[in-house]
Design brief:
29% strand, 341 residues, 2 domains, Acyl_CoA_acyltransferase, Aminopeptidase, 13-stranded mixed beta sheet, GNAT family N-acetyltransferase
Length: 341
């Protein structure tokens, strides 16, 4: 018998022993699937959680949502590499998610979930569950995830397979840039990262407080890899590039990277990336490196595969609040058909 409940207060989730265990770092080997991640999004990023939980005996399925006015979305943002529901090992995740989808029909007219992977079957699982519960589902690719399967190689073997231009850059610039990889949180190094980010080509940071709190927690857990680069011939000793990675469950996640525009001739970002790749491949012995979302051209120099990320837009077919949306979708399809014709 599937029972569905909702939690707007994450302390309720934390106080439930079964849920807390399922959503802990002991059970989930990626930060995006953990209660602590959602707590950070709520505390620092202004997202109001609505955690949907389906229970069947000792089995759980959890769908972390946010939103208002009957339109719900994923409890995630630009810091999340991907979004997916979390289920107990061995549970019938499809049946539990179908229970959530059926119950959501009384609370929402539209649910939009972005960033779902499907190499593990997540997008298909969620789509099937909502269709089974009577929702209309539109599915499309919304983003790309660049990744590297290390496949047992050491760093030297991996580097030999990189593009010639990158290898030449590293050979020419490595002697001009000093790098350091910290495995703990260091306040001075983090201040340097924030200063570098402000002077980089990157857009304004969405939530610096979230990122700092996450880095501190990952440092305390031993998962942080914080890289800092300096120009060897600079008397000031000013850091010119910084990167934040984390490592767990055999995967290295590349969260943030930035360099000072004034230091671009030294290619400090590339040299620092090489140092971190060496650290996680030869030192941490990871099997995968995940470069997050975004189809930036420079990622292709380091990564060897691209995985799609999907958006599912789910609608209650009889809700009047969706009729205007259906009309717009119909008009777009007619326009596309006319253009092809």
């Amino acid at each position: 018998m599937v029972k569905v409940e909702y939690h707007a207060d994450l302390k309720e989730v934390q106080s439930d022993a079964g849920l807390a265990a399922l959503l802990s770092s002991d059970a989930q080997a990626a930060p995006f699937d953990r209660l602590a991640w959602w707590q950070g999004l709520a505390e620092h990023c202004g997202l109001a959680p609505m955690i949907a939980v389906a229970r069947d005996g000792a089995d759980y399925a959890v769908l972390p949502l946010t939103g208002a006015d009957g339109h719900l979305g994923a409890l995630s943002n630009w810091y999340s590499f991907r979004f997916r529901p979390v289920a107990s090992p061995g549970a019938d995740a499809g049946a539990l998610l179908a229970g959530i989808a059926a119950d959501l029909g009384t609370r929402a007219h539209r649910v939009t979930l972005s960033g779902l992977p499907d190499e593990d079957g997540t997008a298909t699982l969620v789509e099937t569950a909502f269709r089974k519960a009577g929702w209309l589902v539109a599915r499309e690719v919304c983003d790309a995830n660049h990744m590297l399967d290390v496949a047992g190689r050491d760093y030297a073997t991996y580097l030999a397979a990189r593009p010639g231009k990158l290898r030449t850059t590293l050979k020419r610039k490595a002697g001009k840039v000093a790098t350091e990889v910290l495995t703990r949180f260091d306040a001075d190094a983090w201040d340097a990262y924030e200063a570098i980010y402000r002077e980089s080509w990157k857009p304004e940071e969405g939530s610096p407080d979230f990122l700092r709190a996450f880095a501190q927690a990952e440092g305390a857990a031993g998962r942080l890899r914080l890289g800092v680069a300096h120009a060897k011939d600079e008397e000031t000793g000013e850091a010119i590039a910084a990167q934040m990675w984390t490592v767990e469950g055999g995967t290295a996640f590349i969260h943030k990277l930035a360099h000072r525009e004034s230091a671009r001739p030294l290619s400090p970002g590339s040299v620092l990336s090489a140092a971190l790749f060496r650290h996680v491949i030869d030192g941490d012995k990871v099997s995968l490196v995940d470069f997050g979302t975004g189809d930036d051209p420079y990622k292709r120099d380091w990564m060897e595969a691209v995985r799609p990320r999907y958006r599912l837009d789910m609608f209650r077919p009889l809700s009047p609040r969706n009729w205007l949306i259906f009309a717009k979708i119909g008009l777009r399809r007619l326009a596309a058909t006319a253009k092809r014709g």
